[in-house]
Amino acid sequence: MKLINFSLFFIFIFINLSFADINKEFENWKLNFKKIALQNNISEKTFDKVMSDTKFLSDVIKYDRYQPEFYEDTKTYISKRTSSKKVSLGKKFYEKNSTLINTVENEFNIDRELLLALMGIETNFGTYVGKMDILSSLATLSFDKRRSEFFTNELLILLRLIENEQIDYKTLYGSWAGAFGFFQFMPSTMKNYAIDHDGNGYIDLKNNNDAYASASNYLNQIGWKSENPCFYKIDLSENIPSKYLNISAKKLHDKKKLKYFRKYIKNNDQIDNKFNALKVAIITPDKDIIPDAETLNPAYIVFDNYEIILKWNRSLRFALAVCTLKDKFKNEL
Questions:
Q1: In terms of DSSP bridges, do strands 279-283 and 299-302 run parallel, antiparallel, or are they unpaired?
Q2: Where does the chain show beta strands of DSSP type E?
C-alpha cells in the first residue's frame, strides 16, 4: 500500500538524518526561500518579522502522509462526520446564528444546510480551528519535496496578504496543512474569495460574519447550483465497463449524461428523471485505498455540485460526507 511506503519513507528519513541535520537543512532552505520571497515583492521587513521564528514541524510531515482520506473506508469516514451528534450541534449553532446564516444564504444563493455541513466537518462549528502555527506548517511543507511547489505558492500568497495588512499574522493558527478559520481557507482561497462582510476594514475568518460570507462567496463563484443534486448512491450492474469507474479525486473522467448511465444502475428508479440531461460521473471511492475492496461497491453517481466540493477539498470521501450532512440538515432545519 502507498500508505506503508510513505510511512517507511518518513521513518527512513529520520533514521538517516538527525533532527539537528534536518533543522540545519530547513534553515538553509529559509535563506533560499527569502530570496524567492523578495523577488515576489515581499519586503525584507515583513519576511524577517513573520518568518524568523518558523520551525520545521515533524508532525506536519506525519499528518501529510497519514490523512484519514487515505485509509478510512467510505462508510467509516462518512459516519464519523455526519453523526446525530453533529446534526444536533449544527441545529444549535443555526438557532444562535440564524439571522446571519439566512441573510448570507439569500445574498449569495448558497444553501444554509451546505454552509452548516462544511463548517461542521471542517471545524465542528468553529470549536476546533486547529492550533498549528500556519507559517511553520506551510514552510515545512514547502521545504518537503512531496508537494513543495503547491505549498511554496501558498506561503508566498500568505506573506503577500500579511504585507498588505489584510491578515494579522499573529492570529495564524490553524490546521497542519496551512488552512485557517471557521471554514479552513487556504491562503489562495483567502486571497481570491474572502470578504470583509462586516465592513470593519479587516478580514477575520474566525468571525462568523466574515467567515460565512467568504464561504458563500467562494461557493457561489465556483458554481454551486442549489437546485441540483450532489450525488446518488447506486447499485451498479456487473456489465459496466471499468473505464467509467473513477477511483481518484484528481480529475473525474468519462462523464456522460445521466440518461446514458441508467442502463448500468440497478436502483435506477430511485433517481429523478428530471436530471437525465445533466452530465455525471461514477465514483467507486474505496477501490484505490482499501485492501480487497469490492470493485463496484460502494458506488455513486456524482453531479457538478459534487465536483464543486472537490474544489474545496480534493477528496472523494470529504465531498460525500459534506453532501450527506447537508441532506441531514435539510430534514432538520
A1: antiparallel
A2: 132-133, 173-174, 231-234, 245-246, 256-257, 279-283, 299-302
Cα torsion 6, 11, 15, 19: sign: positive
Helices (H), 144-231: 148-163, 187-193, 208-221
Closest CA to 329 of 107, 91, 31, 137: 91
Contact 68, 285 (CB under 8 A): no
Mention every residue, 6+ apart, whose C-beta is less than 8 A from residue 174: 129, 130, 132, 134, 137, 180, 181, 184
Q: What is the largest CA-CA distance in the chain?
A: 64
pTM of the model: 0.87
Q: What is the C-alpha separation between 114 and 309, in angstroms, rounded?
A: 10
Residue among 112, 117, 323 at smallest CA distance from 231: 323
Q: How many CA atoms lie within 13 A of 26 on its CB side?
A: 23
What is the phi/psi pair of residue 295, to 5°? -70, -40
In the three-class reduction of DSSP (H, G, I as helix; E, B as strand; rest coil), residue 254 is classed as coil
Q: Which three cell numbers stand for residue 43?
A: 519586503
Using CB atoms within 10 Å of the CB of residue 215, give its burial: 0 to 12 exposed, 13 to 18 middle, 19+ buried.
Answer: buried
Residue position matching grid coordinates 470578504: 195
pLDDT in tens, the chain (333 residues): 344 444 444 544 444 456 678 888 999 999 999 999 999 999 999 999 999 999 999 888 888 877 655 668 899 999 999 999 999 999 999 999 999 999 999 999 999 999 999 999 999 999 999 899 999 999 999 999 888 999 999 999 999 999 998 888 888 999 999 999 999 999 999 999 999 998 888 889 999 999 999 999 999 999 999 999 999 999 999 999 999 999 999 899 999 999 999 999 999 999 999 999 999 999 999 987 777 778 889 999 999 999 999 999 999 999 999 999 999 999 888
- Which residues does 17 contact at the CB level (< 8 Å), separation at least 6? 25
